[in-house]
Amino acid sequence: MTGFLENLSLGVHVALTASNLLYCFVGVFLGTLIGVLPGIGPTGTIAILLPVTYGISPVSAIIMLAGIYYGSQYGGSTTSILVNIPGEAASVVTCLDGYQMARQGRAGPALGIAAYSSFIAGTIGVFILMFLAKPLAEVAIKFGPAEYFSLMILGLAVLTYLSHGSMIKAVIMATLGVSLSQIGMDIVSGQLRFTFGMANLEDGIGLIPLVMGIFGVGEVLANLEESNDFEILKAKIKGVFPNLKDLMDSVGAIIRGTFLGFFLGILPGGGVVISSFVSYAVEKKVSKHPERFGMGAIEGVAGPESANNAATAGAFIPLFTLGIPSNAVMALLLGALMIHGLGPGPFLISEHPEIFWGTIMSMYIGNIFLLVLNLPLIGLWVKLLKTPYRFLFPLILFFCIIGSYSVNNNIFDVFVMFIFGIVGYLFKKFRYEPAPLIMAFILGPMLETALRQSLRISMGSFEIFFSGPISVSCLIIALFLLLSPIFFKKRRQMVRKMS
Amino acid sequence: MKSHDLVGGLVWIGLGIYLCIGSIKLGLGELHNPGPGFVPFLSAAILGLWGAILMTFAILKKLDGGEKSNDKRTWVKENWKGFVSTLAALFGYGILLDRLGFLITTFGFLFFLFKITDPKGWKIPLMVSGLTTILSYLLFSVWLQGAFPKGIFRF
Fold it and tell me: Which residues of B touch A391 (CB under 8 A)?
């Protein structure tokens, strides 16, 4: 207990330094901003800002980048409620009842409950994270390369399973990501792989140009084809404090959403999005009046908003305890830790307690900042929503260029970004989900090392992956997830034929 | 599955085969001591295999009569000028940055993009691009000490 209190006090000390408070504020402010603005998400923003963090301490960098992530969940709900366009994928479900509430003149309480439930869930989520992460990290220390390999395979399988659209395409994206990560020098033999004689490729393809290209440039190119003019509710927003009935209706949804969101957030692959949908389904199921859902039920806003914010806290568990990211944003945070020379994994919490506890404490503070930013400043965000896309996209592209260039001060990275921008555009057109590619690209080298180490230890026997309970369970679940669409499809076809 | 999945499947199969051949050349090694081509070979083989699955589903769907496509994608019809100009601007930035330097290239890039989306006005594109260039120079070059090329004009 003494150690826990000591760590807690260390976290408070780190989070409350003037510079970290500033970085936390900048993070949540930018997060809200990009959550509100369509056309750029937390993945792209974190990628753009990665090079900016080179000059600051690792803990400040993680505090700011984490702030962008959970801040974007707050901002995303604003556009869902006022414009019926989700700022983030996790806010899609908020459109259903949030926008209906706004149309009925209840935009204020909808925005209010979204912010309060996000705050409560975010805070409780951080609280659970604080208690769970350390014991889990202690278990993770006992993991060998075979367990790591199987866990990473499970992570990729879950991400492909939860991807939108075709799962075959998601698997293709994941394997393409692993293949792209192989470009450059082999760390064991020093042999160059697929560099085509280009010295610039000897260190491999850079993560930042790749992410900027696919998520930044590719997204802009696709958005240029679409009309981004939308109607913003003109009614004046008043009464962001929900009344007693609203609060009574929402309290159960907030509690359920928080716990559901946190534990689904731990799952590798898109826990934030899935948790908001599951929470909505649960709320509808337990409601005495399910017919109100979709017509402006406040529980339909409170539940999913709690779930997606608690899930952001849960998503930190695999990153901090195993060094395995659970989604593309966490993969970038992993990249940020590695850029700063830190080896993420079970030893991170014990060797660098200031990073873990400092980030946790900053998340409490960030949630308070977000409450202040999102309620009194709601008018500002509504005004920003009116910014025409034609003014935004040149700036997004410019930041992508700067981000890519400043990694190595090398124009080659800008061209890499350019090429992956076109590739990202084509992915979007042909409905290939890029998140598995990014995650596999980051996990690729770790996956390769774990596989080669395991085979060396076992003298070339694949039995090593089936000898331990953790490894074998992970592989069985991964196999089930990868094959399940075939069975479910057959089942669906059978049902169709029978009917 | 749409008909373009057939082409997509072929692309992945082709890429898979190409990478498999490249990996074999790198050396697969032995199972107890995997070589540099071992993991690239595995990932390329899986890529090609899933490409074949994608293609098979697309063929089966076609043979089955196919679903009516409700694909509403626009292929750069409405704003093709903006699309092509954006690509040209990005490529141009990459080519010109070392030659003209950060300030001129950035201003030119932003002005070009603001202007093509707002062909009538001059004031706003000029002001926004000028202001963004100066602020970004102060932020990235002066404050964050980023080493950006000065170009032939040495600024």
Answer: 114, 128
